[in-house]
Amino acid sequence: MDALSDLFRVVRLTGGVFLEAEFSAPWSVKAQAGPEDCRFMLAAPARLISFHYVISGQLLLQIDGDPPVEVRSGSIVLLPRNDPHTLASQTGLKAVDSEGLIQMDASGGLARLRHGGGGEITRIVCGAVGSEADCYPLLDTLPSTLVLDLNGRSAADWIFSSFRYAARELSAARAGSAAVLAKLSELMFVEAVRFYLEGLPADERGWLAGLRDPSVGKALALLHTDLARPWTAEELARDVYLSRSAFADRFTSLIGIPPITYLTRWRMQVAAQRLRDSLKSVADIAADVGYESELAFAKAFKRQYSLSPSQFRKRGDRPSGAHAAQA
Length: 327
Fold this sequence. Notes:
The protein has 327 residues and is of the alpha+beta class. It is built from 13 helices and 12 strands. A 7-stranded mixed sheet has the order 9-10-1-11-3-6-12. α1 crosses α6 and α7 crosses α8 (244-255).
């Protein structure tokens, strides 16, 4: 399994579509996904990634302090940190709060929004993907706004037709429709991340850039595939056909921390997920993430999260704060 797939597996995502909107120019609305929009998720997520899929027409999206971004028909725009933002037909218009315009479906189907001055029509579908972890290194790597233009891409047809189908399913209140929308939203997010990774500049630094580097990407895949193995920097360097010093320098340059430090932090995040979601003993989880000694694992875990594994499990906690940022 590659490192990107492993990250998606461990830090689970859940998502869905909560709104279908039709705007007619001129128009401008303020938007941000909130807890009330998470009814399609099994539990309130620790972090939301909101998105808008433009079915037809076009729009301008702007986060305060950033220049507006044009999003045209057949494109998806993601906001990895769910920043408050404005959607509009043009700049310079006074924005109204979108919450007051939403019409809820009494049967629990797709909410709708109709707004504007009667001119050119723009139709969009809005949704969100939730993460159970406050700290998600992948999301921290992405820009505040990520536009995925599907026009001419192989994914365009299935995403467009799937959104149309799933929206009709939810509107008809058919059993299982919310699950269809959730899986579609998650797949769409994965496709957007892959698209972003493909377009990174050659001199880019960070976790995603490391995935693209042949040596560092292979090392990440090895670490994520066999987490419990007692890895050393020398062994990793040998497996990716580099000297120890050359490998360590390249890994640290791209990822920002040495390979064994990265491994330790990832082990702690995997352990935290298993403490939350499984009934395994602390000793078994310690072994799963490469610790022969439960005491050594407990010390490393407390150093990361300021809680012992047992305290963390008892609280049902999520990684948060400064310690989670290190993960």
